[in-house]
Amino acid sequence: MVKVLMCGSVASSGGVSTHTKNLIENLSVEENEILLYNYYTNKAHSKNTNFEKVYRRTFGLFLEIISNRKKYEIIHDQTSGGIFSFVSSVTASIASKIVDKKLIVTFHHSRTEEFVKKYKLFFNFVLKNVDTMILVSNRQREFISKTFPQYSDKLVVIPNGYDSAIFFPRNTDECRSTLKVPMNKKVIFNISNLIDIKGHKYLIEAIGNIAKTRSDIYCIIAGKGYLSETLEQQIKNSKLEDYVKLVGWIPDNEIPIYINASDFFVLPSLGEGNPIVMFEAIGCGKPFIGTKVGGIPEIIASEEYGLLCEPASSAELEKTILLALDKNWNSSRIKKYAETFTWKNIAKTTKSAYEQKLLKKNKTYSPGINYLADLK
């Protein structure tokens, strides 16, 4: 049994939140003691202002680590991009030395290189003081190791995962009937925040070009964000109302229904870390069509599980979607492969990282250890 102070944002949505929540649930099943310090507060009177967000990652976190020092053996901080998020790792680095506890930081960020270059001094400080930094892709590890070679033995790779109790193959026709999705179309599904980095405009352009030669496609885009009206206008201007539909935000319990109603999932991102939705899609036995960014190529390493193209190119995306439309996919094989990445397995791997740090006070990992390879 391991006693962990888990520090992260557990909210209603977001990749880091989903990761933290599922990791806690699955570590708890293993009879570990997990004490959560939530950067997100769901108090009725709280609006999670910028001041409160910074406070909870600095003074609030510092007090939590000090006051509860007898309740845990390891501090595990879940942090992502943006200096106001990463500041929690700076705080934890200082406080962990005061209480003499092991510190593990999981760094989630879709633009690792940009962030590290911009905040190199802060990142160096955290790496110097952390016992282990968990990264979600080899691409992250390779860049950070090259930038800070003196700390390469502190870097490990553990990918994201998915909940196999929720994301599993379901009857496609039943799912389409539930959602009132056309039965006689090739359905493409995407869910992500409607922001520039997710590349929706390239997806809509690609669908527009495909629609010129075939009328059997139907693309559903779910999510919310500042580009909602812009994308609606793009669809209207391109006269694609019969081919592309924005459905807005959808509740979590409907996501697996939408995935299973589709023929395949598409994520045309310009940048990613290790998108959880990728694991959720293949967990449902659906092929993943995406871009060669972040850790995606490490997971979609075979064309049996999906197809990838270069980012920011509607022409490349169009070719890849056309190939996917005509390919005979083996859903069972995709699902079998996905089982490697259940949150249960990710939690077991994370626990192994904890135990190695606790086994001997001065024990370190072998340089460049990669749990992703072990999982596969």
Q: Which strand order spans the largest sheet, edge to edge or round the barrel?
A: 2-1-3-4-5-6
- The chain-level structural class is alpha/beta
CATH architecture annotation of the largest domain? 3-Layer(aba) Sandwich
Rg, rounded, reads 21 Å
Largest sheet: 6 strands, parallel
Low-confidence stretches: 361-368
CATH class of the largest domain: Alpha Beta
What does the model show?
The chain has about 375 residues and is an alpha/beta fold. The protein has two domains: about 5-160 and about 340-375, Rossmann fold (3-Layer(aba) Sandwich), CATH 3.40.50; about 170-340, Rossmann fold. The chain is about 45% helix and about 15% strand. The protein has helices at about 15-30, 50-55, 60-65, 85-100, 110-120, 120-130, 140-145, 170-180, 200-210, 230-235, 255-260, 275-285, 295-300, 315-325, 330-340, 345-360, 370-375; strands at about 5-10, 35-40, 75-80, 100-110, 130-135, 155, 185-190, 215-220, 245-250, 265, 290, 305-310. A six-stranded parallel sheet has the order 2-1-3-4-5-6, with helices on both faces. The protein has a six-stranded parallel sheet with strand order 9-8-7-10-11-12, sandwiched between helices. Helix 1 packs across helix 16 (about 345-360). The longest helix is centred in the N-terminal third of the chain and has 17 residues, at about 85-100. It starts with a strand and ends with a helix. The model is unreliable at about 360-370 (pLDDT under 50).
